[in-house]
Amino acid sequence: MGNGVKEGVVRLRDDAEPVLPAHVSSKSDHRQVLSSLLSGALAGALAKTAVAPLDRTKIIFQVSSKRFSAKEAFRLLYFTYLHEGFLSLWRGNSATMVRVVPYAAIQFSAHEEYKRLLGSYYGFRGEALPPWPRLLAGALAGTTAASLTYPLDLVRARMAVTPKEMYSNIFHVFIRISREEGLKTLYHGFVPTVLGVIPYAGLSFFTYETLKSLHREYSGRPQPYPFERMIFGACAGLIGQSASYPLDVVRRRMQTAGVTGHQRTSIVRTMRTIVREEGVVRGLYKGLSMNWLKGPIAVGISFTTFDLMQILLRHLQS
């Protein structure tokens, strides 16, 4: 080739890593973002649909003063099925999909981008990030997704705890809230959501990425099997959700205050009220045992689906 390098030809650095021309690199970056968005959307949709009945039951207990137990949760599921039909167990799931699909797409895509940016900053690449940047990438990804999709989360919570006669569909929820409570209500409970997302998303992504890294190191295989990914995701969900659960209870109370009879107050007052009336464990950790069942399942499905979709799309692109 001579001393120069022709335009459009891949150049190599000293470490033999290919450096693509600007137009090729830009096209590759766009493909990676689209691939992450699509994989994340599918991952979120499958995970949340799988655990929707348990999720709805958990929310109902979170926003009420009724004491939680596995027996009462099963009874609620059974009577809901008897009086409202089987599909009523998925009531609010349409709103969940409207929220989860963009949320998961943004979260996973943002995580990939934050990993790339932080990796570039610290001199690491992708999954080779050291612990603190790995934790930061997950926290930033969760915060980004929550900030952009929060009103949909509030709508989903309202639909989960109200009868069909009150809100007929997603648009009806938006219209009634806007007319009767004001547009600012759509972001009521946003602060505890973000405060909860930071440890939840941070620890979830951190745990999953760390387990995959340890697996590569000790197994000698570059990729875990699907069932191993499920186990890693389940561990990630268990740790992440346990760490952020009290703030999840607080945000649900704040989101549904307009329809459950609870007074609309600040985070601190809402938390004090819960503790005073129901106690620390029974109040702030109400329904956690159900979360230990549904959380690992949902997060395991989510992470596994995302990884397998990414692998599939890379094969198709190549």
TrEMBL record:
Main location: mitochondrion
Compartment annotation: Mitochondrion inner membrane
Repeat positions for Solcar: 31-117, 129-214, 224-312
The entry's keywords: Membrane, Mitochondrion, Mitochondrion inner membrane, Repeat, Transmembrane, Transmembrane helix, Transport
Recorded catalytic activity of this chain's protein: ADP(out) + CoA(in) = ADP(in) + CoA(out); dADP(in) + ADP(out) = dADP(out) + ADP(in); ADP(in) + ATP(out) = ADP(out) + ATP(in); AMP(in) + ADP(out) = AMP(out) + ADP(in)
Family matches, as SUPFAM superfamilies: Mitochondrial carrier
Annotated Gene Ontology cellular component terms: mitochondrial inner membrane
Residue intervals passing through the bilayer: none
Membrane topology: Multi-pass membrane protein
Cross-referenced InterPro entries: DNA_mismatch_repair_CS, GDC-like, MCP, MCP_dom_sf, MCP_transmembrane
Pfam families referenced in this protein's UniProt entry, alphabetically: Mito_carr
Gene Ontology BP annotations: transmembrane transport
Entry's family note: Belongs to the mitochondrial carrier (TC 2.A.29) family.
Cited function: Mitochondrial carrier mediating the transport of coenzyme A (CoA) in mitochondria in exchange for intramitochondrial (deoxy)adenine nucleotides and adenosine 3',5'-diphosphate.
Annotated protein name in UniProt: Mitochondrial coenzyme A transporter SLC25A42
Organism: Odocoileus virginianus (White-tailed deer)
Native organism taxonomy: Eukaryota, Metazoa, Chordata, Craniata, Vertebrata
